[in-house]
Specification:
heterodimer, A: D-Maltodextrin-Binding Protein, domain 2, D-Maltodextrin-Binding Protein, domain 2, B: mainly alpha, MetI-like fold
Chain lengths: 464, 325
């Protein structure tokens, strides 16, 4: 009896182990890019068979307006393509890079969302920076070449060309976005007799006036997440140097100019002034809470990208608000009022190992249809890359600042690999004393230079 | 004499055999699942991590990779900003020491209290204190982020409205307070685990010992110090080692609460960031692109070496203390 009991027990345990450890022999995508040469590495596997029907998984980050719209077209998409069902997989913005990697590795995603293909590793910087993730995906054959797809032809070709890599288009750039501006409460501006500022001095005067009045918060941001506020150090660069930041960013990386040089110190000075008007405790305000706080109506200005207009409205803003580009210290040479810095936002790409690849293409075709696309652009409030007429009042109000937009400085500012904390946080607001950080602007610039130099020397010694 | 020893051994073997509930082969078979799990999910990945640390593998399956010798280790020790690497190692040490000491001290006190027979609802209380252990890091992080949030979180309001601090700091965005806050969250989450081990040990102490010592006039502190502590020493050793190893490798809460920013990046966090990317997650607090699993594997091996050395030293010290007692 004891032996039988032991035998049974052992059998159950082994069975449990087998169930727990055996990999499912599924063929739903598997893991594999296009064939690549392997130098002593793994043999690239053959592509998994693509399903002709099934769920089309679209991975995107948490932008409420985008996610809501994509969810709203699930039924219509299914009606247009009965073989496919759209599933929107939403992840927090800060985790999108990791999730894209794990989902592509797992081979269980059909469409992934990128922002922009910026700062590639090239000959001039190959010793100083690592390849960005998007470049690794393309170089390793993980993203489909969409260049010749029919749905690409309905978009503004000049706009799409700006996000090419090696002469090919690996993503469908759905929108661009203006994001170097400030939301402002029109009622408060009117009550205090304020005008939209056209120069930096006027901007400071507006801040002072609101501060003196004392009834309203002057300026806020979702600073706890860091990037929402750091967008504005880039905004200050773009406002002052426009596309000239491309050259300056490269020279900062190579050491031809220093952070302590006067033209860069101007940026730090403006950052410190900007920081001095941010509301107390701003460093702890999360990005998800920030639009709702502006929507309460007691804040004069709110620093965020134009994409948050929909979130502000959805948060119940019962007042008129507008958006103006952050001005530079000097008036623009072309005589125009301040212009926005822009970037590509929301670009859809299709992994080569997508389990329902044809469904992914069907989704891109569907989203590119004029009526669907127009509704999408109206819903999210971003600048369209198709030539469509929008009825989004807020979006149309940005046109004055989009006469001569520049690519925002964010796309041009590098940090060398292995760089120290202060070099890495070279233009981080939360490093400033004004916001609880350890340094003044001048001190941060000095430390950033030291870290850049140390990283350059380390890279040289590593290459020797 | 020799024959007597042989007979004794034979007798022992016979007695042991008679006392066995199951035959040896059944015991071995029952161990198979655990062994398989250990080999497949622990031993094999560890071995492969050591191999990968000498490659430039990205982590994307099917892509090319090659052996690069010691290049990853050279990069770790040469390219990494020395000041920041030292800071990260220092933080890792502080994290480990504070978590180990505070977590186990609180857990022992809580275990003694919750072991008291006169305490009503102690089983319920034990469950409550153990509950954080079963929560995921994301849940714990969300909760602590809410507790520390500005300007509506309870801690912020406490500082502002009760303690009358004019401009309370945003704890999780503070270069001074974010790290202690993450440590507090780590202790809060894992204290219940240590407590349960202490409770099990406390329950094995015979009640007679306490009664006898009370009759002899020992104070409660003397009973605790002279009877409880020596008899739970093996549990203290186990908990100390578990806490040291766990905290040295820990990155989940740091990743989910601060993403390694605001002076909170530890070595474990750096490994994660190198492999999977992450803003503010390097030793430098800066963002990294990720997808360098070969380099991350080298960082893991450095971490492993550190954990191994610390564990051996700790175990030696704890064993010595146990022997002295």
């Amino acid at each position: 009896m004891k032996k039988i009991l032991a035998l049974l027990l052992a059998a159950v345990m082994i069975l449990a182990a087998a169930c727990g450890t055996a990999a499912p022999a599924s063929n739903d995508g598997g893991e594999k890019p296009a064939a690549e040469e392997n130098e002593g590495g793994e043999q690239a596997e053959e592509p998994a068979a693509e399903a002709a029907s099934g769920e089309v998984h679209v991975l995107t980050w948490s932008n409420a307006a985008t996610v809501d719209f994509l969810n709203s077209i699930v039924e219509d998409f299914h009606a247009a393509y009965p073989d496919y069902t759209l599933v929107i997989d939403e992840v927090p913005s800060g985790e999108i890079d990791q999730v894209i990697q794990t989902r592509i590795t797992a081979g269980n995603v059909d469409v992934v969302s990128f922002q922009t293909f910026a700062k590639p590793q090239e000959d001039w910087n190959k010793d100083q920076i690592d390849k960005p993730a998007w470049q690794q995906y393309i170089d390793e054959g993980f993203l489909e070449d969409l260049t010749d797809k029919e749905f690409m032809k309905v978009y503004n070709q000049n706009t799409l060309a700006g996000n090419e890599y090696n002469g090919k288009r690996y993503s469908l750039n759905i929108f661009t976005v203006a994001y170097t501006g400030l939301f402002y409460n029109k009622a408060i501006f009117e009550e205090l007799g304020l005008e939209v500022p056209k120069t930096w001095d006027e901007f400071i005067a507006v801040c002072d006036k609101v501060k003196e009045d004392g009834r309203y918060t002057v300026l806020s941001a979702g600073a706890a997440d860091q990037w929402p506020l750091n967008m504005f150090s880039n905004a200050i660069m773009s406002a002052n140097y426009q596309d000239g930041m491309k050259e300056m960013g490269q020279k900062l990386l190579t050491g031809e100019i220093k952070h302590t040089d006067p033209e860069i110190m101007l940026i730090y000075n403006c950052m410190e002034q900007f920081a001095s008007y941010l509301e107390p405790g701003v460093a702890g305000i999360s990005y998800s809470d920030a639009p709702g706080r502006f929507a309460l109506g007691n804040m004069a200005m709110y620093a965020d990208g134009a994409w948050s207009a929909a979130d502000i409205k959805n948060a119940g803003a019962e007042f008129d608000f507008g958006y103006f580009p952050l001005p530079g210290v000097e008036a623009r040479a072309d005589g125009l009022d301040p212009q926005y810095g822009i970037k590509y936002d929301l670009s859809f790409a299709v992994p080569t190992n997508a389990p329902v690849k044809e469904g992914a293409f069907a989704f891109l075709e569907y989203i590119s249809r004029e009526d669907v696309y127009t509704a999408f652009a109206n819903a999210v409030g971003m600048t369209p890359t198709q030539d469509v007429k929008l009825d989004n009042e807020f979006l149309n109000s940005l046109s004055d600042g989009l006469q001569a937009p520049c690519i925002n400085a964010e796309m041009y500012i590098y940090a060398p690999k292995g760089v120290g904390e202060y070099g890495s946080a070279q233009f981080s607001f939360l490093q400033l004393k004004a916001l609880g950080g350890p340094f003044t602007g001048a001190e941060l610039a000095e430390h950033a230079d030291e870290d850049f130099e140390a990283a350059r020397q380390a890279a040289e010694s590593l290459n020797d | 004499m020799a024959s007597s020893t042989r007979e004794q051994k034979k007798l022992m073997k016979k007695m042991t055999k008679e006392k066995r509930l199951f035959p040896v082969w059944a015991v071995v078979l029952c161990m198979v699942p655990g062994l398989l799990h250990y080999i497949i999910f622990r031993l094999y990945p560890s071995f492969m991590t050591a191999i990968y640390s000498f490659t430039d593998i990205s982590g994307l399956p099917g892509t090319s990779w090659k052996f690069v010798g010691w290049a990853n280790y050279k990069e770790f020790f040469v390219l990494q900003n020395t000041r920041d690497l030292k800071a990260a190692l220092g933080r890792t040490a502080i994290y480990s020491v504070v978590v180990t000491l505070v977590q186990n001290s609180i857990a022992l006190v809580m275990a003694v209290i919750l072991n008291a027979k006169f305490l009503r609802g102690r089983n319920f209380a034990r469950s409550i204190f153990f509950m954080p252990v079963i929560l995921g890091a994301a849940v714990v992080a969300t909760m602590w982020k809410l507790i520390f949030s500005t300007p509506t979180g309870p801690i912020y309001l406490l500082m502002k409205d009760v303690l009358k601090i004019e401009n309370p700091p945003a704890i999780l965005s503070s270069y001074s307070y974010a790290f202690p806050a993450v440590i507090a969250a780590q202790i809060w989450q894992h204290m219940g685990y240590s407590m349960v081990i202490f409770l099990a040990s406390l329950q094995s102490i015979p009640e007679d010992l306490y009664e006898a010592s009370r009759i002899d006039g020992a104070s409660e502190f003397q009973i605790f110090w002279r009877i409880t502590i020596p008899l739970v020493w093996s549990a203290i050793t186990v908990n100390t080692l578990l806490a040291i190893i766990g905290s040295l490798q820990s990155y989940e809460l740091i990743m989910t609460i601060t993403r390694g920013g605001f002076n909170t990046a530890t070595l474990g966090m750096m490994v994660f960031a190198t492999a999977f990317g992450g803003g503010g997650a390097t030793a430098s607090g800066g963002s990294v692109a990720g997808m360098r699993q070969g380099y991350a594997a080298a960082e893991s091996m450095v971490l492993f070496a550190g954990v191994l050395v610390v564990t051996i030293i700790s175990q030696t010290i704890m064993n010595k203390l146990e022997a002295e007692r």
